[in-house]
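Quiz preparation item.
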């Protein structure tokens, strides 16, 4: 296979843009590696950062490198010591590759490994016909789950991990930001029995997406006083749980203001820099509990994602707004940048 080539979307050299080109198919799998044929891949906000070549990407990406990390595919070849997947299996993959050596990895917290590598960031990614990954990151996915949904199980896992830090049954849940992940969190909260799911969002396309995913109320904080509206919807109490999924400084301050005393805050959004807020009045004196969320639990979150999709308790169809052949990847990136999409799927 070494001499064969495949189509891939590559960051060829430092600078903006990505290139579709033929590159060699990855070589023979090492003893613990698996060669996967990519069936579907999806574009993440991270890919957009890499495309634009912002400061974050400049510090991390070492071109030439294949981009992409969200995908589903079929096992084509396994290394000699691989035991948990076999040729022909449908798989999805955790994109954070744990070192398996640090304190966190050794104590059941691989998702916060101190030395993790990320697919498509520290090594070649999945926007290609084939990808070589370590066995440890693979999750055998139920083949009845449509490829489009399997491909986005990674960000769906972010939504699940963030939402399920606490029991949502009968709770009033506020989600700030209805990007693809916030929109999927709406469905997770509904499936978990939340009493009222409120979403704050500023872009029309995403406000509609939140509604399609089952949000009870969508609030535009540019048009109304968001904390006041949340209180009026919750008998004057405020939300029991805040899921921060915007990465906006304004949104988290309004979110904290909207949470009831003793409430739970789960933070997924990544902020542009240091965050200044009135921690005394917005957090400490309210007796809040705050969780920081990175990635997905390996593999508790993946199991829940699999079950929610297989049982159809969650319908991700509104979130998958576009599917393009790999050749038209630029259109997908353009729509995402303008906020005119949910998840964009690429076919290889
Ligand atoms: P996204 O950028 O597509 O969605 C963010 C949404 O927030 C957008 O729709 C935007 O219009 C909305 N928004 C912006 N300002 C707002 C405001 N003031 N009030 C309400 N909404 C506002 O991102 P995504 O892919 O859905 O991811 C959500 C967040 O999670 C991002 O910040 C992303 O960087 C972060 N993330 C974190 C992890 C992690 O492991 N911690 C993993 C993936 C993504
Ligand atoms: Zn580790």
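Solution:
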């Amino acid at each position: 296979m070494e001499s064969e080539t495949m189509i891939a979307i590559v960051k060829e050299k430092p600078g903006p843009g990505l290139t579709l080109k033929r590159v060699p198919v990855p070589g023979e799998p090492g003893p613990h590696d698996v060669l996967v044929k990519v069936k579907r891949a999806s574009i993440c906000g991270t890919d957009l950062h890499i495309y634009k070549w912002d400061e974050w990407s400049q510090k991390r990406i070492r071109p030439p490198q294949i981009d992409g990390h969200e995908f589903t595919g079929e096992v084509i070849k396994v290394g000699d010591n691989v035991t948990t997947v076999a040729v022909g299996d449908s798989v999805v993959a955790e994109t954070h590759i744990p070192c398996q050596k640090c304190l966190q990895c050794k104590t059941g917290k691989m998702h916060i490994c101190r030395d993790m590598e990320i697919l498509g960031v520290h090594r070649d990614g999945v926007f290609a016909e084939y990808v070589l990954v370590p066995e440890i990151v693979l999750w055998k996915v139920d083949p009845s789950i449509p490829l489009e949904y399997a491909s986005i199980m990674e960000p769906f896992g972010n939504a699940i991990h963030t939402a399920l830090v606490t029991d949502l049954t009968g709770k009033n849940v506020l989600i700030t930001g209805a990007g693809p992940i916030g929109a999927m969190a709406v469905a997770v909260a509904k499936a978990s029995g939340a009493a009222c799911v409120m979403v704050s969002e500023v872009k029309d396309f995403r406000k509609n997406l939140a509604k399609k995913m089952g949000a009870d109320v969508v609030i535009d904080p540019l048009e109304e006083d968001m904390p006041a509206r949340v209180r009026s919807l919750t008998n004057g109490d405020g939300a029991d749980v805040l899921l921060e999924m915007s990465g906006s400084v304004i949104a988290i301050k309004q979110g904290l203001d909207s949470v009831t005393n003793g409430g739970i805050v789960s933070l997924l959004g990544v902020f542009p820099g240091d965050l200044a807020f009135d921690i005394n009045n917005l957090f400490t004196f309210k007796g809040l509990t705050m969780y920081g969320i990175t990635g997905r639990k390996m593999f508790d979150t993946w199991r829940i994602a699999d079950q929610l999709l297989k049982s159809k308790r969650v319908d991700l169809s509104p979130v998958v707004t576009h599917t393009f052949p790999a050749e038209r990847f630029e259109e997908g990136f353009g729509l995402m940048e303008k906020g005119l999409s949910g998840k964009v799927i690429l076919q290889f």
